[in-house]
Amino acid sequence: MAERSEDSEEVKLLGMWASPFSRRIEIALTLKGVPYEFSEQDITNKSDLLLRLNPVYKMIPVLVHNGKPISESLVILEYIDDTWRNNPILPQDPSERAMARFWAKLIDQQICVAAMKVAGTIGEERDAAVEETRNLLMFLEKELVGKDFFGGQSLGLVDIVATLVAFWLIRTEDLLGVKVVPVEKFPEIHRWVKNLSGNDVIKKCIPPEDEHLEYIRARMDKLNIKSA
Amino acid sequence: MANKPILLDYWPSMFGMRARVALREKGVDFEYREEDFSNKSALLLQSNPVHKKIPVLVHNGKPVCESLNVVQYVDEAWPDKNPFFPSDPYGRSQARFWADFVDKKFTEAQVKIWMKKGEEQEAGKKEFIEALKILESELGDKPYFGGDSFGYVDISLITFYSWFQAYEKFGNISIEAESPKLVAWGKRCMEKESVSKSLPESEKIVGYVAEFRKNNLGSE
């Protein structure tokens, strides 16, 4: 935790313990040593605070800094990088920054959606969703060749965003009953997950495995999705 | 001149237009290349193997894909002229939020108006008007979304202005009635050369959509 001579900066995060979008903000703040207050939100019964701070989407995460709210996880991550300049998560070079943003969007807009389809479908539809997810992940697989992390030698934006793949997709494969990301097809991604799992910031900020799996199992039961 | 950037584009694309506006705002001399989707160029397939979509900006041999990435890249690669973002991190975050809103809500809704008919189109119209009102409220009485200067959010949205006439005709709505401030803002932006040079005439877009609807929906 960074020491501050004046306690004028107030950072509050409205989040949810099992959400990958909320956890990624915690990773970024922790990486930069920014102290913050976490406010667990019940997304099934949204608080007035949440509705007031994010009237457009009414979703977590919302970062509040010096009383001003920022919504949308990728926007928040760039704000954090702009504001606390130590341990940068985006590269300096404009074309590398563009690539990082590209991969982050791919993960959120396509990989995440495809993975959710895997969880929510059966039979042929599920097979198609698995294939789609794998095709997209193959691009990430190639990106990792020769690198410890997407960010190179240290965690970057794409690593932080891709924790979704490591700890929400791969981690839940047994529950899903399908190995979406088999190690034979994705050796680089599995190597990267090992690197992530050994990283102190990541270890501190991801949901504890047993509780996480229990939560997902309960959700799947509630939605009548067959869990393995 | 070595490093003249190449823009792979498609004339009616509001996403491609964003890249054009951004480059012109910075006074960058670029080579415009029209892509034929039935016969995509080797450069496009090589530069954007993931999506195979335009716009792609190829600069110093390196590709930049996705229109908002291109706009941000242009701002960062040519930082000395007409910055697209305010200097304070909070202002920047709000600009990113609203450009992302345009991409999320506005884009999805407008597509239903020109590409669909019947119930799907009606649903699109509702979403579109809702998004218009939210954007109108965000603009308020400012001359631009960026405040006094034309910026990132303006660039992200202004390109749809060339499509307004098409939305009105095929969606049977009056954008002026729903969001007069936005229409005034659109006209204001069109006075900028970087914008007027980058957007096709509305009539051409109307023709494009008419053709699409005839070929794909069986009627206009």
UniProtKB/TrEMBL annotation, chain A:
It holds the Pfam family GST_C. Signal peptide: none annotated. Belongs to the GST superfamily. Tau family. It is found in: Cytoplasm, Cytosol. GO terms for cellular component: cytosol. Residues 93-216 form the GST C-terminal domain. Its EC number is 2.5.1.18. The keyword Cytoplasm applies. This is glutathione transferase. The gene is GST32. The keyword Translocase does not apply.
From TrEMBL, chain B:
Pfam families: GST_C_2, GST_N. Keywords: Cytoplasm, Detoxification, Transferase. The keyword Cytoplasm applies. It catalyses: RX + glutathione = an S-substituted glutathione + a halide anion + H(+). GO terms for cellular component: cytosol. CDD domains: GST_C_Tau (cd03185), GST_N_Tau (cd03058). GO terms for biological process: glutathione metabolic process; toxin catabolic process. Its EC number is 2.5.1.18. Its main location: cytoplasm. Residues 3-82 form the GST N-terminal domain. Coiled coil: none annotated. Residues 88-208 form the GST C-terminal domain. GO terms for molecular function: glutathione transferase activity. Belongs to the GST superfamily. Tau family. This is Glutathione S-transferase. The gene is GSTU15.
